[in-house]
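Anyone opening a protein record will find just a pair of labelled lines. The record below illustrates this layout.
***
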Amino acid sequence: MRVAEGGSIGTAARSVGIAQPNASRAIARLERQLDVVLLERTPSGSRLTTEGGAVVEWAREALAAVDRIVVGARSLAAQRRPHLSVAASLTVAEYLAPGWLADFRQARPDLRVSLAVANSDEVLEQVLAGEVLLGFVECPALPRSVASTTVGRDSLVVVVSPAHPWANHRRPLEPAELAAADLVVRESGSGTRQTLARALAQVGVELGESHLELASTAAVKAAASAGLAPAVLSNLAVTSELATRTLVEVKVSGLNLERKLRAVWHSSVRPSGAAAELIRLATARSPQ
């Protein structure tokens, strides 16, 4: 596969950290074992033969199956341990998970729970790699290799400092006005940013470039409160600021900013035991 991607045995060998002669011998040995010529070798490089291309595709499928077995086995083993590893996106981790875990700790004092905090894309990566048994995300789309269930619902709101011109808008913003503004936004990979971009795309508007991209909800709130720019955040994150008018909500017409909060796990193994208990508790405690 690496030869197909890199165009030569030398490039493939370097990508996996072995010497080219060793890689050449390994490929020749495989060709003898399979009784098939896999590579067409030329002075300018190597490329797959037709038969080699077929073998590579089969190998991809086999390796994907092995990965599923490994992750599935890890998940099964993890469900038997007195330790539950969970990952949650920043919004969930900051505003919902502490309450869930406090209640869960009371119900299961025998169990040690660890919570990793990351953006939604990073949580999905940890779940797929088998690093955590369970994840909680709020991104609008999921890869096919994870399964999920909705534990709650949330919506995004546009907020500005009371001194910002939008704070006194008498009419709702149009989606195009919001997209064109120099917003302070979360980083790529965050569920909040993905939800905003998707909502705008659904009405035919593309999210514009921002000069201020921050990796935490707290930082985005602080920037908006300081009057640097409008921000789009979870309503969970700005409840107290809206109540004290540290931030002001700005309505946007025709834009659906609602989203699902979901528990996710590798599709090869459905959560049971403590993981299933935590999902049930999260669903009971989350806004619906």
Remarks:
- The first strand starts at residue 39 and ends at 42.
